[in-house]
Amino acid sequence: MTGLIIAALVTALVVYLLARGYKPQPVLLLGGMLLLLLTASLDLNPLLPENKSTQFKYFDIFQIFTDIMSSRLAGLGLTLMAIAGFSRYMEHVGASRALFAIFEKPLKAIKSPYLLLVISFLVTQILVIFIPSHAGLGMLLMVTMYPILIRSGISPLSALAVIGCCQFIDHGPGSGNVIMAAKTADIEPAVYFVQHQLPITIPIIIAVAITHFFIQRWWDKREGFVFDPTTIDNVKEEGSQVPLSYALLPVIPLILIIGFSPLFHNYIKLEVTTAMIISTVIALLFEYVRLRDAKAVMNSFMLFFEGMGKQFVLVVSLIVSGEFFANGLLKSGAVDT
Prior knowledge:
By secondary structure, this protein is mainly alpha-helical. The chain has 15 helices and no strands. Helix content is 71%, strand content 0%. It is globular. The relative contact order is 0.17.
């Protein structure tokens, strides 16, 4: 019972600090540290097994954090960082833009603005599978899909509603959440995606697409939106044009992950991290063929590590901090109680 009371008080402190706008990582670390410190001081439970202990219970608090960090960086964290590194390189070479160019002409051919809104949403759900970075996909859609939508008679807010919902499910074998769920269920990400996630997400995607048609039209009427083509500036896309063949690059990880998965009873086993590295190397080869500048292409590979670093700062650190706090809840005995 003591552990439950301690956990309730510390959790209340964590919620209070988060509500005040404190960064979640240090708050969760503080919460976990307080829980483990009180657990050790009151001798509620041993923090670590004898064979893993530092033999000084207060040092064990930090050893727990070290163990979590080592485990996550070598497993899930490395996978997430590799995905982010690949997404960053795709943004650099313009492969994501080339992928979207394939969908651009069919979108322009649709005359009904709100039908276009629905179809655009469905297109984003396909792109999510290939471009797992929410920020990367959001920026791509803002410079490509957004101008098409507002030029077709859709209000800026309705267009933003579709783009804002692009990763509301976060599905696909390259998704960090899918990888975590598959790891928890002890199955391959590709198997989890095809056999367990798709049967649930497809009806949801259709329902949300239909909802967009009616709710965005309702909001536009309520706000008195009237399409005026004279108010739209001609926005030219910045950046050099890339070959349409680059549209293949974001798809390569999906081909590798699904193609070498148990779904096809393949004897070759390929991890997500390995697939991302192979795909990045292939992208480097594409860039060399296009630019014929070995130094520039080799230097651009640093963007892969830059993407990995940003993912560590934003996501992996949050996972580690959250797990550290969860360990505090477990060691205090609150969960068992």
